[in-house]
Amino acid sequence: MALVDLIDEKIIHAPLVSRNKPDVLRELVGILKDIGTIDDVEEVIAAIVAREEKGSTGLEDGIAVPHAKTDKVKKLAMAIGISHQGIDFDSMDGKPAQLFFLLLAPVDQTGPHLAALAEIAKIARSRSFCHLLIHAKSAQEVVAAFKEDM
Predict the structure, then answer these.
(1) What kind and span of H or E run contains 49?
(2) Which residues are catalytic?
(3) In contact, 92 and 60? CB cutoff 8 Å
(4) Alpha-carbon separation of residue 3 from 60, 66, 112, 146 (angstroms)
(5) How far is it, in rounded angstroms, from Cα 75 to Cα 71?
(6) Segment holding 78, helix H or strand E
(7) How far does CA 48 lie from the centroid of its chain?
């Protein structure tokens, strides 16, 4: 499954309401709860926090990819958030994160999870595409950007 296949306006908050890392995680997981992808918000957040404790998923250049494996999803699930002002996410470069790609994968499936992480890494290397996403004012603009680029 290609990352673009997961892109839908319903999984995107642009802009995010949250202003700190715990709230970003809760907001992104809430997106998946709202669309019926998950039922147990607290258990999913606990899985993500446990992963974050091993090392922040805040990368460089304003991108964060919080992710976890959990038995609370049957297939790969994603939520995207965009913060125009940036949020401290303990990123490797010490800069605030602006693009958030939350990934949840079933415990027994590795392939789709790794493929999605690889696609996000590819996106991260395109400064112009990231710039376009960071400045998107709506979920519709984010979807359009992905559909045009991918």
Answers:
(1) helix 41-54
(2) 67
(3) yes
(4) 20, 15, 9, 9
(5) 10
(6) strand 77-87
(7) 11
Distance CA 45, CA 42 (A): 5
Distance CA 27, CA 37 (A): 14
- Give the pLDDT confidence of 13-72 residue by residue, as tens digits: 999 999 999 999 999 999 999 999 999 999 999 999 999 999 999 999 999 999 999 999
Cα distance between residue 107 and residue 93, in whole Å? 30
Which pair of tokens denotes residue 63?
Answer: 């991108």
- Are 93 and 61 in contact, with CB atoms under 8 Å apart? yes
Domains of the chain: 3-149 (3.40.930.10)
Sort strands 77-87 and 97-105 into parallel, antiparallel or unpaired: antiparallel
Give the span between the Cα atoms of 30 and 41, in whole angstroms: 7
DSSP 7: -
The pTM of this model reads 0.95
**Nearest of 54, 57, 47 to residue 21 by alpha carbon:** 57
- The contacts of residue 119 (CB under 8 Å, 6+ apart) are 2, 3
